[in-house]
């Protein structure tokens, strides 16, 4: 009788443990599938891609792609806080003096002031800093070509003032 009770207790424990493991695993999968996308992604697509589209043609676009902006504002020493602050400053008051993308300013002009709330800009910049973003098919070749031109002049890409400034 004792051995039957011990066997029954062991079976209950084994089956009971297996059930809880399945529940935990299932709930983890459900949580992963229902995860919220970063709010900055939608804000970027809605507010920025109008002018900074990743799919616009090189010759017909009205502003540089967001990947170009990201590459001009981030280097190996840039912190997220500094990046967010720099983007905030530019969006609040874009001027030729504050420009980092002189080729873009020559081609497109200075970006117009936009009345976005600070929190919106923060979320967009936060998303940009931490995530890979879409880029036009032509961008990598263009970026390497422009960087090569700047390196031959002994300057970093985009950080030399144009002659007409």
Compact description:
This protein is an all-alpha fold and 165 residues long.
Q: What would the keywords be for this entry?
A:
disordered C terminus, Cytochrome Bc1 Complex, Chain D, domain 2, 7 helices, globular, mainly alpha
Layout of helices and strands:
Elements: H1 2-33, H2 39-48, H3 66-73, H4 80-92, H5 102-108, H6 118-130, H7 139-152
Structure write-up:
The protein is mainly alpha-helical and 165 residues long. It folds into 2 domains: 35 residues; 114 residues, Cytochrome Bc1 Complex, Chain D, domain 2, CATH 1.10.760. Helices cover 59% and strands 0% of the residues. α2 crosses α6 and α4 packs across α6.
Supply the number of helical segments. 7
Shape: globular
User: What's the oligomerization state?
Assistant: single chain
Number of domains as seen in the coordinates: 2
- Kindly identify the CATH topology of the largest domain: Cytochrome Bc1 Complex, Chain D, domain 2
* Beta-strand proportion: under 5%
């Amino acid at each position: 009788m004792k051995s039957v009770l011990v066997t029954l207790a062991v079976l209950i424990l084994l089956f009971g443990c297996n059930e809880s493991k399945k529940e935990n695993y299932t709930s983890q999968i459900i949580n992963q599938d229902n995860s919220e996308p970063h709010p900055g992604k939608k804000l970027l697509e809605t507010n920025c891609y109008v002018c900074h589209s990743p799919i616009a043609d090189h010759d017909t676009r009205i502003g540089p792609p967001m990947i170009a902006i990201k590459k001009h504002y981030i280097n190996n020493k840039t912190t997220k806080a500094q990046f967010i602050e720099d983007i905030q400053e530019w969006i609040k008051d874009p001027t030729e003096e504050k420009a980092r993308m002189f080729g873009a300013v020559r081609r497109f002009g200075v970006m117009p002031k936009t009345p976005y709330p600070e929190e919106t800009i923060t979320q967009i910049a936060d998303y940009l800093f931490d995530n890979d973003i879409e880029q036009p098919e032509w961008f990598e070749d263009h970026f390497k070509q422009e960087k090569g031109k700047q390196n031959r002049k002994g300057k970093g890409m985009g950080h030399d003032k144009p002659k007409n400034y």
